[in-house]
Amino acid sequence: MKIGMFTSGYQRNPIEDVFKDAKRFGYDYIELWGARPHAYAPDLKAGDIHQIKELIDEYEMPVRGYTPEHNAYPYNFMIGSESMRRDAVEYLKLSMDMAKEMGADFTLMSPAHAGYNATAQEIWDRLIRTMRELTEYAEKIGHKIVLEALTPYESNVCKSANDLLEVFRQIPSDSLVGMCDIVPPYVQQESIMAYFDKLGEKMYHMHVIDSDGASDTHIMPGEGQMPLREMMAELKEMNYQGTMTIELVTSYINEPRFYARRAINNIRDLLK
Description:
Blueprint: E1 2-6, H1 15-25, E2 29-34, H2 41-59, E3 63-68, H3 82-101, E4 106-109, H4 120-141, E5 144-147, H5 161-170, E6 176-181, H6 183-187, H7 193-199, E7 203-208, H8 228-237, E8 243-246, H9 256-271
Parallel strand pairs: 1-2, 1-8, 2-3, 3-4, 4-5, 5-6, 6-7, 7-8
Helix pairs in contact: 1-9, 2-3, 3-4, 5-7
């Protein structure tokens, strides 16, 4: 399996630090977080894409996935007016264009909170309409969307393997695949391994981190409550050949290089 670095924890550092440290610490690839000051899709379109491509070449470190920020201000395609939804859709289409230009295999999307007044029917109608439109665009440009389920602390839309399955049932496409961030199933007593059983060939990617079991907080691998050593043994026995990004987010933003090094060393130990 290939181990990737997630980059939102580096947002207070120069973007070159991301590539330099991924190379130094032995990561296989980068999953590039897209928001200012780094890799915001409109800025990439305006010329910043050239710097990203230069860094990829200089450090021989590919960007395997691009994860544009769209769970918070100003983009969330699940809430607000139709013009707000359209704005988010156009932003994500541009994000896919930029991901493809930098050589990324996929763009990651995770439907955010739809608001407290939205009914289940309204949520699903909006989700399917939007994901169908985005998937059709991914098909057009020859790109993949990786759809992520979130925790119930973050979203009331897509939160489980069954939710992902329903999206795939309604939008059958080779350009739309799924993943497992292992925190959402763990905090809601869902089986992590059931993602593999249920999604089958659609199970394309993972976010690996640790958890306190009671929130969406992402903790350093091996330093929370999850049985990660046993999970790694299962992945090795099933010969998982996909990608696995260590999703350190902003809990370690003060010293990202200390924790990026520690995270991959912990994962290597857990894989022994």
